[in-house]
Amino acid sequence: MRSGITYAYDSKSHWDKEKQQSRSTQHLIGRVDPVTGEIVPTDGRNRKAKAKQPVKPSQDFSHKYYGATYLLTQLAVKTGLAQDLQACFGNLTDMILSIAEYLVLELESTLCRFNHWQKPHVHPANQPIFSQQSNDLLGQITKSQITDFFRRQSKSRP
Question: Could you tell me which residues belong to the region Disordered (predicted)?
């Protein structure tokens, strides 16, 4: 008991072979509440426990490759390729450009690997194109659209 306050300690004894005597160590657990008799944890210096800093939630970051696809998209726009695709294929243009850029950049890969490739790359479609969608896309393109596209391309070339 110090200054009228009763403290609770954890005491452990052990035998010191060298000095041939018993030794004990005490660790303060806390003070005994005089009203309830319960042990209230304390650090023994009458300090309040420091408020823990709230853990900031980690931010999710993503890394996407943009350079090569940006270059190919700009080439398609500047050469008139994107405009001709838009005129012939309408709302399929971005999907066609995305798949074409994939096939140019990944020469050895097959179309079934496109789904894996598109996750870390920015591409004109700017949304996931699933395997079934790419198959449907190829089925939607008609011979007359292809003929019209090449006719437009031949007119724009010297």
Answer: 1-27
Q: Tell me: the pLDDT tens digits for 43-54?
A: 756 666 667 788
Tokens of 28: 């303060």
Residue 92, classified by CB atoms within 10 Å of its CB into exposed (0-12), middle (13-18) or buried (19+), is middle
Query: From start to end of the chain, where are the E strands?
Result: 7-16, 21-32, 39-41
Instruction: Compute CA distances 90 → 42, 56, 133, 137, 145, whole Å.
Output: 73, 46, 16, 12, 10
Q: Residues 147, 74: one domain? A: yes
Model confidence pLDDT, tens digit, residues 9-41:
888 988 988 988 988 888 888 888 888 988 888
**CA dist list (Å): 60 to 57, 63, 79, 94:** 9, 10, 38, 27
Which domain covers residue 16, as residue numbers?
Answer: 7-41
pTM above 0.85, yes or no: no
